Amino acid sequence: MKMHHTDKEELIRMVEKNKRIIYKVSFMYTNNQTDREDLIQEIYYQIWRSSDGYRQEAGFGTWMYRVAINTAINALRSNKKLPITEELDREIPCPEQDRERDEQRQMLFRAIDNLNKIEKAIILLWLEEKSYDEIAVIMGLSKTNISVKLVRIRKKLEELLNEMRYG
């Protein structure tokens, strides 16, 4: 089925409105600007290519998350797992009260980097305050499965953070 000109304009408008999704997913799965830009371009391409598969009932943002995460996971199948901390480590130091929060944030991202691709996607969506229902739709899993996985992921992150803090 060919998209009409107005459909293409609507798709561009909706993608633009939700482009934060693309940047968040690409940040989570890459560690440098070049890889990030490549992944962003690939996500845009896959959104455009699979736009005929978008069904209104899912919600555009939900559909976009699914395409972005699947694209990132598929792109990484051929590459090694990339750490995501390089850019965080280069942040400019901030005032004292912010420093502790930034250190905690960096530690959290280092811990998240140790998760597998699926766990990373689920925790990203959870940190984005998506409901279990939304996460289930995006990931193509049951709500119960998401619930169980989130309990395990949070426990795994807690263990990783404790290792980092206390050796």
Question: Nutshell version of this structure?
Answer:
The chain has nine helices and no strands. It has helices at 5-17, 19-29, 33-49, 60-77, 86-89, 96-113, 117-127, 132-139, 143-166. Helix 3 (33-49) crosses helix 4 and helix 4 packs across helix 8 (132-139).
Q: What features would you describe in this structure?
A:
- The protein has 167 residues and is mainly alpha-helical.
- The protein is 74% helix and 0% strand.
- The chain has helices at 5-17, 19-29, 33-49, 60-77, 86-89, 96-113, 117-127, 132-139, 143-166.
- It is globular, with a radius of gyration of 17 Å.
- The model is unreliable at 80-97 (pLDDT under 50).
> Helix proportion of residues, in percent?
over 70%
Characterize the main sheet. Answer: none
Total number of strands: 0
Residues in β-strands, percent: under 5%
Quote the average pLDDT: 81
List the total number of helices: 9
- Write down the overall geometry: globular
Poorly predicted regions are 80-97
- The SS-based structural class is mainly alpha
Helix and strand succession?
HHHHHHHHH
- The termini sit apart by 57 Å
Over the alpha carbons, how many angstroms does the gyration radius reach? 17 Å
